[in-house]
């Protein structure tokens, strides 16, 4: 075999590499009609993936009526643009009025002034100085070089109007910025859910488990949890309902309302006859088309503002036959430690193939009188503490 040399060899290598890269890309690319990820109604970080179309023009007036909410929900770049435009625009508009008064009174440079001419505003003799006087008046700077003489009644009325409008703009813009900073959804950013959900045995029942954690040490007072299963269903009349909502009850060992949310909690949903997951199995779960949306409502302890945290799980994010690793341990100093490196990690455990299999096995064990040996997951971070090592807390 003759090996080409020079530029011909470099060209051959380039063609071979390009062909190989194209084959790799073809292996990873999918047709336009087959998307790699399922469209969600609620993203993992809680945003709703929905848009409104064909809204009547009259309905858009509702945004103007509820202008406060409209301004608060503006993006930060538009709020900052509105902040700059409102102040700069008001300064310029009032500078034109001050310029018109000065021109009407003959105070501008180049105008013929008679002996004993009295200006309405001292040192306002052009548009630039009128703009500076408008800025100084509305921001109450008052450098002292420009001031009213008191001989023109219109200037007194104009300075009152500009001062009142300036106060209104200050209050409104400060209120919008303060409201955006203190939005409850910012507090929701510090509450996180596990990336995946698991299905395993818990307290003698087949359950769907989800883990949630509060990243702040301040509590969420009156926390409650619930879920909604979104799926497309067909009624007996042949009507197709898109995003049909089914209630999914979640709870922890202490209940589902007024949770003591001081450390990460494991939420579980018992899969029984009333559960929408009753007919699922380990084989049919990946082929399902649904979206499980989980909500956590609570009130921030520091600000007393209500907030809602939400996330979603699709069938590909639910692991059948897995259980979460322990993350809470106790150190030798007597403190409780939360290891967030294992927050979303899971390990395979013995789990029935489906709910019917679990119920059949349970009936057979009850009939034969045999007890199933319970198994668990070791918490490697747990430290055994001798009671004599504790410090006497009664001493001051």
From TrEMBL:
Keyword presence, Transport: yes
Residues covered by the Potassium channel inwardly rectifying transmembrane domain: 42-184
Protein name in UniProt: ATP-sensitive inward rectifier potassium channel 1-like
Gene3D superfamilies: 1.10.287.70, G protein-activated inward rectifier potassium channel 1
SUPFAM superfamilies tied to this protein: E set domains (SSF81296), Voltage-gated potassium channels (SSF81324)
Domain Inward rectifier potassium channel C-terminal, residue spans: 191-361
Family: Belongs to the inward rectifier-type potassium channel (TC 1.A.2.1) family.
Spans through the membrane: 78-101, 156-179
Localization per Swiss-Prot or TrEMBL: Membrane
Superkingdom in the source lineage: Eukaryota
GO MF: ATP-activated inward rectifier potassium channel activity
Site (Role in the control of polyamine-mediated channel gating and in the blocking by intracellular magnesium): residue numbering on this chain: 170
Membrane topology: Multi-pass membrane protein
Chain coiled-coil ranges: none
GO BP term (any one): regulation of monoatomic ion transmembrane transport
Record key words, sorted: Ion channel, Ion transport, Membrane, Potassium, Potassium transport, Transmembrane, Transmembrane helix, Transport, Voltage-gated channel
Catalysed reaction equations from the record: K(+)(in) = K(+)(out)
GO cellular component: monoatomic ion channel complex; plasma membrane
């Amino acid at each position: 075999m003759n090996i080409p040399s020079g530029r011909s060899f470099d060209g051959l290598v380039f063609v071979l590499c390009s062909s190989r890269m194209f084959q790799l890309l073809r292996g990873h690319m999918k047709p336009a009609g087959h998307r790699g990820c399922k469209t969600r109604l609620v993203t993992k970080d809680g945003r709703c993936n929905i848009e409104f179309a064909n809204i009547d023009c009259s309905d858009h007036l509702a945004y103007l009526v509820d202008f406060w909410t409209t301004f608060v929900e503006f993006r930060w770049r538009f709020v900052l643009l509105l902040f700059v435009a409102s102040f700069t625009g008001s300064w310029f508009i009032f500078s034109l009025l001050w310029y018109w008064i000065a021109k009407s009174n003959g105070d501008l440079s180049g105008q013929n002034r008679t002996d004993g001419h009295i200006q309405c505003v001292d040192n306002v003799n052009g548009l630039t100085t009128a703009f500076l006087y408008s800025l100084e008046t509305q921001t109450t700077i008052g450098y002292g070089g420009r001031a009213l003489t008191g001989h023109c009644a219109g200037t007194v009325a104009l300075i009152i109007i500009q001062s009142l409008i300036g106060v209104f703009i200050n209050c409104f813009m400060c209120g919008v910025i303060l409201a955006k900073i203190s939005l409850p959804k910012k507090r929701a950013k510090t509450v996180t859910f596990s990336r995946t959900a698991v299905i395993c045995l818990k307290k003698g029942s087949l359950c769907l488990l989800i883990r949630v954690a509060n990243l702040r040490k301040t509590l969420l007072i009156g926390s409650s949890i619930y879920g909604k299963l979104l799926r497309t269903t067909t009624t007996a009349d042949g009507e197709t309902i898109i995003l049909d909502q089914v209630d999914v009850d979640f709870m922890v060992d202490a209940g589902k309302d007024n949770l003591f949310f001081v450390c990460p909690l494991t939420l579980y949903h018992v899969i029984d006859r009333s559960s929408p997951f009753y007919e699922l199995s380990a084989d049919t779960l990946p082929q399902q088309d649904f979206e499980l949306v989980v909500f956590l409502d609570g009130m921030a302890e520091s600000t007393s503002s209500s907030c809602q945290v939400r996330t979603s799980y699709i069938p590909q994010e639910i692991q059948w036959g897995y259980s979460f690793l322990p993350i809470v341990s106790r150190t030798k100093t007597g403190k409780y430690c939360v290891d967030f490196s294992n927050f979303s990690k899971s390990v395979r455990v013995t789990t029935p193939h489906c709910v019917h299999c679990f119920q059949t096995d349970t009936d057979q064990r009850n009939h034969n009188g045999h007890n199933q040996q319970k198994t668990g997951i070791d918490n490697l971070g747990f430290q055994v503490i001798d009671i004599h090592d504790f410090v006497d807390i009664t001493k001051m």
